[in-house]
């Protein structure tokens, strides 16, 4: 068994709580702006943030919320979300984040399984959804509406909270079945966030550090990056999502971001529309020079679209295509891949800008040990690892008798202790010829094509690998308009030979990454898109592979029902 140790890390003392540590940080920047809303019109100093948190905590306490009570929060990321989050924790109560995109079934499951006593939503529509799910609910605006009220004292509440107490119940976006409620303690979140700050070098703590958080706070990645920024006293702008982030970057001018690959790809595509001819290729060449550590100096112009100061991005949640890494490097931005899962409060390993190794997900954060078992599975142990699950899944565990969390991911550790993720146990396709195929690198590359919104590679038990591709609606509309077509196009238009030829370029590009036996031999452009709303993506935007194959069963059957006529062209020979 290979192992990599993160060294000594920060651990929350038994008689301490997460918000008590955040208050220390607020005190260190009592007069400096630390939290900013999406419009930029509301900016809170550390002292102002603490006062507002305690006002909200007082209102929650008056409504009977106390230690151990679960409070469901249904909203997009916002300053209000953060303040309610902290107020709940200050009382020793438990935050239950809910994705705004959750279906009624998913919402009912989270509310019922968690036993939430109260729900808080951004608006009346989502408040009504929480009420329908069976709990009392109110909006952010209804909580402590008097901003001049005297803040309550939370010292007694904080004194009763222990590091092993539950801080959050985060429902994991399983690709099959109902989500499991993963328990995140105060100690788990502190260890993940504080040690991410330490592993990331000066990213969070340099004098001009500023970030824009557009990750969903309903996901543990967003929560961990929030608390890392709070503990480091980093000026943090809160935005609802990536579509809001893109136009806001020039005004915010962040020095670093935390994103998922999907967001980096979307920002790259948006950037592409405003670049002069040939500049994307030039950026890729510059980026490859930087990544390759060439002896000569490389001119890396900053991009005003990225804010002009962006130096690094912590990227987690999935694999990232190498050309996207090079694109950002060409504009002076280092992509620091990280690794973790809900059960490790997101953070298990992370790269730092100064010691970044492209192709890896970094070294273990301080206090954490990562191992690779004999069968290649990645194992994790440390104070960031969840003690277990809540509710219906309380009898399940991913931790073995020796204290190792079994991640289900396949990887390796290099001689310098950096972790590399090569696949996921359950996602490796095995063709009828016995060839093991990792689908995600192929899918990542296909998605980079301007016309493509999403892609899934299939082929389990089949004689060859194939793919289903959905189109980016806006890009497809532009493509049609450029060719004199009118309207959005119907299902029949997806068989247009010119469209198929265009998408075939994406398939051929993906195939350049793998051997012929692993290459995509046939594909279909399918109608619609893969979304959370139609049940084909999880709430964290992962592919629900079985559901997708079932939904497009006719297209899959068609691909394997006859010998493809375009195998040679698609597979590259």
Structure, explained:
With 573 residues, the protein is an alpha/beta fold. The strands form 7 sheets. It has a 5-stranded antiparallel beta sheet with strand order 1-17-18-20-21, with no helix packed on it. A 5-stranded mixed beta sheet has the order 12-13-14-15-16. Strands 3-2-11-10 form a 4-stranded mixed beta sheet, with helices on both faces. Helix 11 (279-291) packs across helix 12 (322-329) and helix 13 packs across helix 15 (497-511). The longest helix has 17 residues, at 46-62.
| Mean pLDDT level | 91
Strand content: 15-25%
Note the gap between the termini.
Answer: 41 Å
Q: Classify the helix fraction into a percent range.
A: 25-40%
Radius of gyration: 24 Å
User: Per the principal axes of the C-alpha atoms, what is the gross shape?
Assistant: globular
Question: Sheet bearing the most strands, described?
Answer: 5 strands, antiparallel
Count of runs of 4 or more consecutive helical residues? 18
> Which runs of at least 5 residues are low in confidence (pLDDT < 50)?
562-573
Work out the number of β strands: 26
Strand order of the largest sheet: 1-17-18-20-21
Structural class label: alpha/beta
